[in-house]
Specification:
alpha/beta; Rossmann fold; ten-stranded mixed beta sheet; 40% helix; globular; AB_hydrolase_1; AB_hydrolase_fold; membrane; transmembrane helix
Length: 405
Amino acid sequence: MYLLGTHFLSRGPATPLHCTMSTFYNKVIIPICFASGIWIPAMLLCCIPWVQKQMLYLHWVTLWPGKWLTEPERAGFLKNQASTFRIPTKDGERLFGWLIAPLGIYSSNAQEFLRERASEGDIEDETSFRLLRNDPHARLLIYFHGNTATLAQGRRTEEYRAYASGASDKIFVLTFDYRGFGKSTGSPSEEGVLNDAEAVVDWALNTACISPERIVLLGHSLGTAVAAGITLQYANLPAPIHFSGLILCAAFTNSGNAFSAYSIGNVIPVLAPVNLIPALQVWFSKRMRDTWRTDQRLAALAKQCNTFRLTLVHAQDDGTMPWRQTEQLFASTLQAATSDAVPDVRTIDLGEAGKQEIWEEGGKSISKLIAKHGDHNTMMKWSPIALAVLESFGLTTVTSATPRA
């Protein structure tokens, strides 16, 4: 989420460089913001719904070639490895998406993929769809991207390959653009984007016929709010549906807190005074039209679900979204899950990769990995996320089997 965040006011264990940056922000940058008074007109400007929408979604910013949307091979995929198709929503929009076959599956069926004629037609005629639907052992990772650009952004295409790498004979990836992004029709809003997520998940369950225990939802930045929202929506059905796992990378508690963490160029925290004055933060948050209350949604899931697997990941050097947001989400979700009892949290020292904390009880698992490195985007291509995918699918038990630190 390019708009949101900075390093200032992060809490928890930190590196010497991180401590130096926090001191610099607290003692130099923030007082300058207070004294300049620039935060007052900036705050008022961000109370305008149209401005909020443009800054939150940045759907109008496309920095990568649009040709990659209909030509996945330009992003490094093999011929027909990524099938392009459309998913209709219940309110009349049409979403553009890719269904990506893992390399192991592709290599075992290479001749079928190579003979197939590429088209943006009926996905059910595609080899990738048939192999996904007909394999009872196949898994489906649904990817919810952050703001700005499209599903074909260069970094994101690298992520898709990384996530399937640990089980290249099983993990398919379904990625899509929200309304107003790329080739998807419409204009984004919280209600609309949740409709998009519902359409995609419904396609996975009822068109591809993948059972929920073989589906993992993974969100990055803005996508964490979308993934959390749709997970709660399905958990609230008369016949609740619970997925194999929910992975949230570089998440934020709600849009009001995200806006007040914004820094111009990741350097100048214009709205820092709002963040530092609780009453003002409450007032400002109430001005948000799209609230994206991930904190409340995760707490509800933790309370009401007997089966719930949540993995939170954030990097300490994230200059876009402060990692204290994930600290807060972990604390509030854990509190909801344990009904204020003292939780028995296991800590795993991952060395220079960071530290992971895990709470498990019955069918519930809530974990938080704070990485030392990886910033806002780079970590998405790294092994910890790929490992979290494998664990969420139940394909490995590395961290759950690791002894306490």
